[in-house]
Each structure stands twice: as C-alpha cells, then as structure tokens.
C-alpha cells in the first residue's frame, strides 16, 4: 500500500464511526493524520500536503462526506505540482453520492477496496470559474447546481432532521424531506448557455445542474448515463412546472431516468469553456455544499485527476 496522508472530518455523517476509524488508524502505512476543525479546513490541510510532501508514494486519504472530499480535492488542485498526489476516499457522509457513483459501497467496503488497490485511476473533475460577484475558481467531482437543487441542499444542511436521520443511518432521506418546501419557494429564472457553437436561452429555468456522475441529493439518479471515468460534463435543465407535473417527474426521476424525455427537461453535453449566465440572484451548491445566493457568470471546464479507489 502507499503512504497515506489522512484528512478526516470527525463531524461527518452520524459521528458514530468509531469502529471504522479504529480500523483505518491501524493501517501500517499511515504517515500523517489530521482532523478538520472548521468548514474549509480540509482545503488548507490538503494545500499544505501538496506544497510540502515530496514522498513519491504519497496518497491523500479523505475521510468524511462529499463536502470533505470536495474540499480536499480543491486543496490539491489549487496547488501547482509537477505530479499530482492521488486522492483516496472513505465515505462517512449523509448522501455519499460520490461513493455511490464510484461503486465504493459502505465505509467498510471502501476500506476493503482501498487495501486491494495497487494503482490510481483517472476520474473526470469539473471546474467552474465564476466571473460574477465572488470571482472564484472551484473544482467539483459530483455536480454544481443553481436554483431548485441548490435550495434543497441549503434547506437540508440547515435542517435539524439531517442530524437526527444521520444518527439513524438514514441521512439520505433528509434531502427528500425538504424537497416539497423548496419546490414552492423556488421561482423560475432566466439563464443563457453557450457551449461550442450552440447558444440557448431559457426563460423559465427552475433546476440547473451540471453533473459529472448519475446521482445527487443522496442517491437520486438525475442522469443515469453519466460516468465518472468518462471525460465531459452534462447540463440538466428543468423548467418550472405545475406541482402535479413535478410529482410525476420526481417519481420518474427516482425510478428509471424516463424523466429525461419529459418536454420540460433539457440535457446538454458541455464542451470545454462552456459559459453559463444567470442574472437573477439564485442559490447555488457545489458537491452538496451551499454557495451564497448570487448572480452567476460561469466558465465551465473539466480535466482528469488520479484517484486511489
């Protein structure tokens, strides 16, 4: 096994993973163990590893939820290195959408896979550069959302039910519990998409999600054909609709992907340098972590990164 530099979020999931944490700590090749202490700390820890570690056998092991994985990935990618450090992952979060898409299974199953892995694999990673209010560049492994799904994420992250369901091992249901309230709160908005020579305007956008893999919201199959191992990203746009239409669409979304044939749903494969503009203030989310409501002027790109899974 390689030499593991661990970044662990002790607040992830139900905070009751003592047995699996003990197993990981007994791995003989752990070189460094760091617990995160605040939101964004994993970015700083990953940057420090990327800037200081010269060990050719190094692998950064992120332990936590999708948000922890996102922070570690951003810390590694925001640092200039000749050879990137591979990233491993043990899922301990609420939704665990990346683990589902990467076929890692539970934390115990992911640890088993980790022990068997002998070389990294290249996975696709999305990148957003925002020319709007915040002037930021951020990477994502799952998805980037504007509008409805971002509002669901925001409500879920603030809901007391999330912690209660996490303690029961049912954290993924916390997303479902806030969906209906978010539907009535989220209004339609205008957006523009320019990808390659394709230019499209949407006046009644409701859900806008750039996805790198099939799942969001704790296992909802938004785009069943998406694949982490394939280069590229897809944009899924749903227009505002009646509540009855929404319920029918949501049931299809939970089953077999037939929602993609709905007349209110548009799917667009994105090319390098795609530009997306939203002029109204809207909620946003990246890999299940809330962004401050903002206007958006995004340039979207993608690249590969080595994962040790």
From TrEMBL:
Gene3D superfamilies, per database record? 2.60.200.40, Probable inorganic polyphosphate/atp-NAD kinase, domain 1
Q: Which cofactor does it need?
A: Mg(2+)
Q: Which domain of life is it from?
A: Bacteria
* Matching PANTHER family: SPHINGOSINE KINASE, SPHINGOSINE KINASE RELATED PROTEIN
User: Which parts of the sequence belong to the DAGKc domain?
Assistant: 1-132
Q: Which UniProt keywords apply?
A: ATP-binding, Kinase, Lipid biosynthesis, Lipid metabolism, Nucleotide-binding, Phospholipid biosynthesis, Phospholipid metabolism, Transferase
Output the SUPFAM superfamilies linked to this UniProt entry: NAD kinase/diacylglycerol kinase-like
Q: Does the keyword Transferase apply?
A: yes
Specify the protein name. YegS/Rv2252/BmrU family lipid kinase
Q: Which GO terms describe its molecular function?
A: ATP binding; kinase activity
Matches recorded under NCBIfam families: YegS/Rv2252/BmrU family lipid kinase (TIGR00147)
Q: Which Pfam families match?
A: DAGK_cat (PF00781), YegS_C (PF19279)
Q: Which BP terms from GO are recorded? A: phospholipid biosynthetic process
- Homology family: Belongs to the diacylglycerol/lipid kinase family.
């Amino acid at each position: 096994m390689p030499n593991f530099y661990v970044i662990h979020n002790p607040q992830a999931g139900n905070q009751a993973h003592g047995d699996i944490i003990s197993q990981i700590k007994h791995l003989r090749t752990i070189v460094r163990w760091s617990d995160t202490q605040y939101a964004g700390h994993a970015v700083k820890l990953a940057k420090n590893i990327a800037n200081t570690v010269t060990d050719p056998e190094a692998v950064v092991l992120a332990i936590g939820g999708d948000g922890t994985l996102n922070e570690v990935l951003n810390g590694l990618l925001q640092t200039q290195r000749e050879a990137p450090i591979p990233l491993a992952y043990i899922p301990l979060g609420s939704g665990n959408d990346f683990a589902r898409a990467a076929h890692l299974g539970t934390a115990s199953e992911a640890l088993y896979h980790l022990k068997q892995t002998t070389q990294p694999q290249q996975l696709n990673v999305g990148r957003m550069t925002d020319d709007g209010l915040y002037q930021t560049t951020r990477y994502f492994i799952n998805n980037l959302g504007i509008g409805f799904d971002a509002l669901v994420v925001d409500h879920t992250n603030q809901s007391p039910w999330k912690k209660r369901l996490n303690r029961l091992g049912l954290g993924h249901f916390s997303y479902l519990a806030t969906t209906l309230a978010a539907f009535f709160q989220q209004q339609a908005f205008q957006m523009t998409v320019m990808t390659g020579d394709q230019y499209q305007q949407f006046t009644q956008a409701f859900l806008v999600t750039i996805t790198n893999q099939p799942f969001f919201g704790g296992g909802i199959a938004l785009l069943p054909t998406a694949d982490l191992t394939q280069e590229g990203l897809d944009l899924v746009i749903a227009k505002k609709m009646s509540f009855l239409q929404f319920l029918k669409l949501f049931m299809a979304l939970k089953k077999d992907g037939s929602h993609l044939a709905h007349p209110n749903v548009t799917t667009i494969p994105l090319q390098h340098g795609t530009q997306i503009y939203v002029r109204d203030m809207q909620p946003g989310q990246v890999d299940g972590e809330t962004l401050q409501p903002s206007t958006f002027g995004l340039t979207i790109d993608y690249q590969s990164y080595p994962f040790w899974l």
